[in-house]
Amino acid sequence: MSIPYEYSVVLPEGYTEGKRYPALFALHGKGSNEQDMLGLAEPLKNEFILIGIRGDLPMGQGYQYYELRSLGNPIREMFDRAVGRLEAFIEYAAEKYAVDPARRYVLGFSQGAILAMTLALTMGERIKGIVALNGYISDFVKTEYPQRNIMNMSIFISHGEFDPVFPVKIGYETAAYFKNLNDRVIFKTYPSGHEVNGANRRDVMNFLLEDRLTD
């Protein structure tokens, strides 16, 4: 099959096909690239297969997965295409590498967080957990997308208290939406802008390291 996206993979030391590993699929923000997210996830490299997925649309010095009509208003056809292609990529990579199908995670920042939360709803139990940093869930996804059961999914959502792009109010609204679907949602705010500070990163790493050991 044709590969939907360019990507970079970091395999754990001593990687062997005879073993199955938790996998983290990382989605970057608009105008960035997969190396940015792999750098964020670097502390996990000996425990997880890390797969950074590069958006296929150039933007400035980086990339994006879809374009916007205006802030918070994706071009629907491009958004739908990105969601479908990301689902296909996750299935492709899970077959190519020694991925434990019961321990697949999606991590996203900003545009990547928007997609990570959408994938949680569309893929359901095919994903064990998501981490969504400074994002939101689009209204049309809530009302028009077919949604799968996420009751058993592990969900970590965080937001910068001083985010000038997506105000923190959006973070609270997003967390409330997911808490209506799942009583295991972790939501945290940090004294930061549209970024991931040190405390946020540590909490994310600890969440993933601990959750990979749970059923």
Automatic annotation (TrEMBL):
It comes from Paenibacillus sabinae T27. GO terms for molecular function: hydrolase activity. The keyword Cell membrane does not apply. This is Esterase. It comes from the Bacteria. Residues 55-208 form the Phospholipase/carboxylesterase/thioesterase domain. Signal peptide: none annotated. SUPFAM superfamilies: alpha/beta-Hydrolases. Keywords: Hydrolase. The keyword Repeat does not apply. Transmembrane segments: none annotated. Belongs to the AB hydrolase superfamily. AB hydrolase 2 family. InterPro entries: AB_hydrolase_fold (IPR029058), LYPA1-2/EST-like (IPR050565), PLipase/COase/thioEstase (IPR003140). The lineage of its organism: Bacteria, Bacillati, Bacillota, Bacilli, Bacillales.
